[in-house]
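Quarterly update from the structural biology core.
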Amino acid sequence: MTDAAWESLSNQAVAACGLVYFLALLAHLVEWASLRKVPVSASAAAAPAGGVLVDTGPAPADEASGRRPAMFGRLGYLLTCLAVAIQLVGLVARGMAADPNRVPWGNMYEFTLTGTFVVAFLYVALHRRLRLAWMAPVVLAFVLAVLMVAVIWLYAPVAPLTEALSSYWLVIHVVSAIIATGAFTLGGITSALYLVKARGASRTTGYVARLPKPEVLDRVSYRLHAFGFPVWTFAVLITGPIWAHQAWSSYWNWDPKEVWAFITWVVYAAYLHARTTAGWKGRNAAILALVGVATLWFNFIGINYFSTTSQHSYAGAPALVTVGTVPTTP
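Predicted structure, tokenized:
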């Protein structure tokens, strides 16, 4: 296949995965709409001893109406799995479209595609282990919204990597940062749902009523953050400085992205430290987790638009101008 054919395949795969994500979201909305008037018993959303597995509630009295939400729930999950697979094809094709072939992390459009892929992939991978069916509508809405932003405002044609990105540290650094970003994003979604559930704990019908108990949401959020933090530490405090020294002959340059990545690290370090030493749980921990995910995504996208001094400006596709086939910053 030619480079143009690979790029076309990538664009088609991204469009297709967006459509499938949308169909998955519709399936889950039908699932939850079917349950909106069904009361949740006192035993619903209960976690078994020592675990975080969650039962989303008893089936309705009518067996036929009980099968309908279960069917749409399974359909939504299968469609999500299919969308993740199609998005992976789009990412691989994006890298194959470059000459020479490369990893698909050359600009903000490609970073965002990869970020949404990891968020969706982690949801699919942890769906059964943590029983995350209750998270599906929010995760899919988030992934769809960010994909739309990427396609509409961040898209850039395939081009060779800039000199600063032509390093094997790109793979090591970006993979670890993206995995941590996915875990922190799912943790932030869980923390937001915790706050919603805590305010609507008395409800017996609707989506909020079928969320797990607040203490279960709090525990799931903690596990996601505890997984993401050491990966983020590896990305920000180890691979990032090593790559910076290789590219710019300095381990630390006070670059806005470096500073905000460290701010994000400090926020999540404070979150985990407060939980383990001061016993922070519930509302305060959830708010701090949301502060963390806000700094994370501001660093991920916002710095490219609000900073004119960042040495990471090559990550912002709209800021690039093309001379021949090699992008350079103005």
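Strands lie at 321-323, 326-328.
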